[in-house]
Amino acid sequence: MNEEVAPKRLELLHELVPTASVIALLVNPTDPVLAEANTRNLQTAARAFGLQAHVLHASTERDFDAVFASLLQLRAGGLVIGPDSFLLGRSAQLAALTVRHAVPTVFEGREFVAAGGLASYGGNQTDSYRLAGVYAAS
């Protein structure tokens, strides 16, 4: 589902920041299948909106400083954070960084918004786990 939803995150960001012509996607390269699929889908969506898209990588917390320095160098008007358990687990930290650096950002989980991030678009993790339990019990 995340592959299908990734372009919607970009669409939401584009609606929130219509003047942004350069955006970035943050992915975790340690999961190449997920990272490549999301990169491909986001770049396709970016072309459809006439946006220039750059892919940034983070697989450790130490990478976050370089990511936000790159956003500044690229003059990115927005950021889409790709779905990934490492990134999701650092929602609060990423939200704080996006606020500190004033980068409009869309992420998958509501935890990101609860921690101060701009917007999220994705399924409810708690509901997903509950449904998985229902399916497993059936």
Keywords:
single chain, 138 residues, alpha/beta, Rossmann fold, five-stranded parallel β-sheet, 7 helices
In brief:
56% of the residues lie in helices and 15% in strands. By secondary structure, it is an alpha/beta fold.
Enter the CATH topology name. Answer: Rossmann fold
Report, as a whole number of angstroms, the end-to-end distance: 22 Å
Radius of gyration, in angstroms, nearest whole number: 15 Å
Query: What's the architecture in CATH terms?
Result: 3-Layer(aba) Sandwich
Q: Give a quick account of the main beta sheet: strands, pairing sense, barrel closure.
A: 5 strands, parallel
Q: What is the topology, as strand order, of the major beta sheet?
A: 2-1-3-4-5
Total helix count? 7
Overall SS class = alpha/beta
Q: In sequence order, what are the helices and strands, one letter per element?
A: HEHEHEHHEHEH
Identify low-pLDDT runs: none
Describe this structure in words.
The chain is α/β, with parallel strands linked by helices and 138 residues long. It has one domain: Rossmann fold (3-Layer(aba) Sandwich), CATH 3.40.50. The protein is 56% helix and 15% strand. The chain is built from 7 helices and 5 strands. It has helices at 2-16, 32-49, 63-74, 85-88, 91-100, 110-114, 125-137; strands at 22-27, 52-57, 78-81, 105-107, 119-120. It has a 5-stranded parallel beta sheet with strand order 2-1-3-4-5, with helices on both faces. The longest helix has 18 residues, at 32-49. The radius of gyration is 15 Å and the shape is globular. The model has no long low-confidence stretch (mean pLDDT 90).
